[in-house]
Amino acid sequence: MYTDDIVVPRMLYGAVLGSDYAHARILSYDTTAAEALPGVKVVLTGAKLDGKLYGKCIEDEPILATGKVRYVGEPVAAVAAVDRATAKQALQLIEIQYEELPAVFDAEEALAADAPPIHEDRMRYGGRVPPLDNPNLASSTGFQEGDVEAAWAQCDVIVEDTYETPAQQHMYLEPCSTLAVYDRAADQLTLWTATQGVFIVQYAIAKWLGLPMSKVRVIAPYIGGAFGGKGGLTNQPIAAALAVAAAAPVKLTYSREDDMTMMKSRHPSRIYMRTGAKQDGTLVAREARIYLNTGAYADEGPFVNAIAAGFSRGPYRIPNFKTEAWCVYTNRLKAGGMRGFGVPQANYASELQLDAIANKLGLDPIELRMKNALVTGDKFLGGQNVDHGTVIGCLEAVRQASNWETRRAKRAVQPGKRRGIGVASAAHVCAMNGAGATIKLNEDGTLTVNTGAVDVGQGSDTALSQLAAGVLGVSLDQIKYAAPDTDFSPYNHQTGGSRTTYTVGVAVERASEHARDQIFEHAGEMLECSVDDLELRPGGLVGVKGVPAKQLPFTAIAKRALFNVGGPIMGTANWVYEAEKFDPKRTLTAGFAPNAVGVFYFAALVVEVDVDEATGKVEIVEAWSAHDVGRAINPGAVAGQIQGGLVQGFGLALIEELLWDEGRLVNPSMMDYKVPGAMDVPYEIHAIILEDPEKTGPFGARGVGEIPVNLAAPAICNAIEDAIGAKLTTIPATGERVLRAML
Amino acid sequence: MIESVTIDLRINGEVHSLEVETKRTLLEVLRQDLLLTGTKRGCNQGVCGACSILVDGNSIRSCLSLAVAMQGRDIVTIEGLSNGALLDRVQRAFLDAGAIQCGFCMPGMIISAKGLLNRNPRPSREEIRNALGNNICRCSGYVKVIDAVHRAATT
Amino acid sequence: MKYLEPETVDEAIAALASADDARCLAGGATLVAMLNAELVDPEVLVGLRKIHALRGIHRTANGILIGAMTTHNEIAADDRLVGALAMVRSAAGQIAHDAIRYVGTIGGSIAHADPSADWPAAITAADASIEMASSSGTRSLSVDEFFLGYLQTAAQPGEIVTAVNIPSGPENSRGYYLKFSRVDGDYATVSIALVLAMKGTRCDYIRFAAGACGPRPLRVAAAEDRLLGTELTAEDIAAAGELLAAEADPVTDVRGSAEYRRLLIPRLLKRAITLVNQLPHD
């Protein structure tokens, strides 16, 4: 069951009205006609709420626009009515008087001295990012290592370019949806919602509505995809506010258009980058200036900005390095986390520069990457240690699988097309924040695992269950994975950052070991031996090593615990991932640069394309992608993540972009904003799983979820350049852009 | 004026007599009136395919079908494929191939696969790809979906 | 909204006359999407699905007559459509995707007159005539008379499209429908519908129209004349392509800019002519 499938008695339906203006003061509201419409129970505007602001990084966002609107489509009013049609009708009856203000849509323009301020009260906002001099600058991040100014003189070749990436939309198939139930007598709010993290929603809603967390319960049913777009808050606040005001359940499921207009996108970027190398291909220096357009509200922008900056050196050793990244407010739909989280943008620029250098020096692009790739023992940007430096292994795997040299020596020719082949490598991280896990032994010997980690489709329910089953030697159907519910689940930060297998997996592994230890304690007493003599046997059995006949089933141990000795067997574990801090002797850090992330993982992609000479349209012929995941807990699911992530990356590379006409979104629908269908990508997407076991990971596992998106666009643009001899420094590389590059 | 009419719809072999407003789509009636929530709403414009149902054996978009215009048709939803706990061959194949991630597109995808197999019982991978080209999946990258249908056709 | 299902054309006409704001429902692929988006709100909706007289593909003395309620799928499956009519069959098979082709109709598409759709350009190149019926009787219009502008046709209020009459074209003619779009299943960025007959190495008959290049299907007789009698060399085709592109009035939209469309017209015309000449004679 997904959120919109759930029906409760007396349920009302919500609808939300969006602003017509990109930037305007709200002068007055008239909701009388809407309130009078039969079937309408509640009409809310910013004026009826207390104006409290929320935000993960900067507390800048109201539930409904208050005082002013900052982007076309910003929620300004909400209605709860007996059915969807009535709710929508009521929206038409709401009259709002606006006073239009000058608006700004481009990040660099928004930083100019004469740009209209989007958040005049920035100085008064709470949150973890301190205000900066320019109110339109949400955050900035800078890293420096070595001496980049002096290093240019040492370079035999320097490449420089400007890169632009679009606002990609998550396009999860399930639009954002929340069912909010408010029990007025108990002052208790329950939300079923499509979210990546029930605890984040619980905390934020409680804070926003002024309730203690003990009065807010958040449950995640099945989620129809997320990719970062259901992290943090979506439409839970509006649904909750409607439910509280109506004292009745309210279901708020967005139409696709409302979802695209009111939720969020990936950060569009403009990146100025310069890289220098020696004649033999050794990378010497890089400088990058990154502008991320975060739209009207910061959301996770400052984090995305920091990650983009932190990964703009790529998976390479470049001793002299300087990056500055600016996360800028504009009067557009806000941008937030999306699979890759700033790295697709930064890595696009970085990988195109690698090829530019390879071309100038006449070096093979894979050789050049291998020469500079981080290896075990090297330091990542910031000084964090690279413990499993497998970039070279990933590049070698794709070089072999694709027959790179052969394909490059002689390109296959289709009539009317030009063939090209390109490569990219990438890094990402897969550990972050805190996780808890419990595992309890049921009376019949089965086990229930509970973490609170949400499966958004990536398969964590299965993988985490497999980890527990692996520790305890039982089959998967002996494990129940409990649905995430803030009333019952321990804690998990949220699904995102490729973190679940590793971060939650460690907790599950430890909790399972804890349960095993308790099981052994009982078994030792029951079998009259030392726990050191015990072993687990497949199928939920404990036995004495070397004595096949001496064994007990879990159920016997459970019954003893439940009724006689010790009490219920519950394994528990909790931990928070503590990343290595940046090394101040090595790296100069400026601005907002949290260093709570770690456990690097690497991958590479080779892709072959055909460019249509008449139209410029690019067809992807075949793709080979190697990923070092440490240990594939579920190889099928890992392959699915690679294939699915690559296809999202192919969309970013070739067809996807939100388009604006001044402030108004031109294509907020699936008819007009296209994502790849099965005919738009090849069947031959070869996912190659490499395993260099992670010393600190559960059964050696690392993550995989985001890195495919970091790889796709640069590999494709490198392939296009190979085909047509022209660089595509703006994505998506639509037929039109490619044709223009050819002419 | 919102006009309601009484119509008979034959769904999964059963005839339902319903009072529906003339503007309502079959998708809305399935999900809200009959609580057959397996059929999903992803775009409401016929693009994504999550709303796919079989009508006279062919996969069509229930979001583009007015309920009042569907009388007399033989409609099968995803719920109609399984027989109690027994999964349809295509459903089984999708599970065995590991094709399902978030699952939201899958009812529509499976319905469209059934539609294909109804007219072409042994499709090539290329034919499968073509037939499912407008059932959008954002999770899988399609490779395992194509494998699943191929598996269903050949086992 | 009142919903009616007449069983004859006369009943349908009468039903349309029953309100100022009455519309026909053909396959629903477009109209229901518009209803969902609240772009239309008719008082009366006249469903045509029960009118058998509007269905079927019938041979005529010099071509075929396709009933307005015939689906794209039925047309795409009809292997009697050869020669020039193969273009019509090909166009039908490239509309959107299967699920749409199963319900969408030629009459519904033509009456809507979206220049990005496939039927308008296809029947223009096919030199079709459009049959209509109203309370005043029946009439037949050429494509030039029928398509007036963006979503605008010569159909009067209360008048319905009943059939499309498509000539077989000259002997030995071949047809080709080339559709170029961003992704599979999308509307065309530019489409070229082409009918061609050669006499030896010379072009004896040619007629083509571009879709999605203006408010109406784009057909330029001078571009066709430029090719008549020639051997269709690269220069001939390029010149014709320029003549065609010069009259284009494309919009800039999500599927492409106006300049891109203008660039594509001669290139795609060349591709269509090259490909149609590679087709075997039937």
Quick synopsis:
The complex is a heterotrimer of chains A (743), B (155) and C (282). With 743 residues, chain A is of the alpha+beta class.
Question: Any chance you could write out the topology, listing elements then pairs?
Answer:
The complex is a heterotrimer of chains A (743), B (155) and C (282).
Chain A: E1 12-18, E2 24-30, H1 32-36, E3 40-45, E4 68-69, E5 75-81, H2 84-92, E6 95-100, H3 107-110, E7 137-145, H4 148-151, E8 157-165, E9 177-183, E10 188-193, H5 198-209, E11 216-219, H6 236-246, E12 250-253, H7 256-262, E13 269-277, E14 283-295, H8 301-310, E15 320-329, H9 343-361, H10 365-372, H11 391-401, H12 404-409, E16 417-432, E17 434-441, E18 447-450, H13 460-472, E19 479-481, H14 500-527, E20 534-537, E21 541-544, E22 547-553, H15 554-563, E23 570-576, E24 587-591, E25 597-612, E26 618-628, H16 635-654, E27 660-661, E28 664-665, E29 685-690, H17 707-724, H18 735-742
Helix pairs in contact in A: 5-6, 8-9, 9-17, 13-14, 14-15, 16-17
Chain B: E1 4-11, E2 14-21, H1 26-33, E3 52-55, E4 58-61, E5 74-76, H2 89-96, H3 106-119, H4 125-131, H5 143-154
Parallel strand pairs in B: 1-5
Antiparallel strand pairs in B: 1-2, 3-4, 3-5
Helix pairs in contact in B: 2-5
Chain C: E1 2-4, H1 9-17, E2 22-25, H2 31-36, E3 44-47, E4 57-59, E5 63-67, H3 72-76, H4 85-94, H5 98-103, H6 106-112, H7 119-125, E6 129-134, E7 137-142, H8 143-146, E8 147-149, E9 152-153, E10 160-167, E11 174-180, E12 190-199, E13 202-211, H9 221-227, H10 234-246, H11 258-278
Parallel strand pairs in C: 1-3, 2-3
Antiparallel strand pairs in C: 4-5, 5-10, 6-7, 6-10, 8-9, 11-12, 12-13
Helix pairs in contact in C: 9-10, 10-11
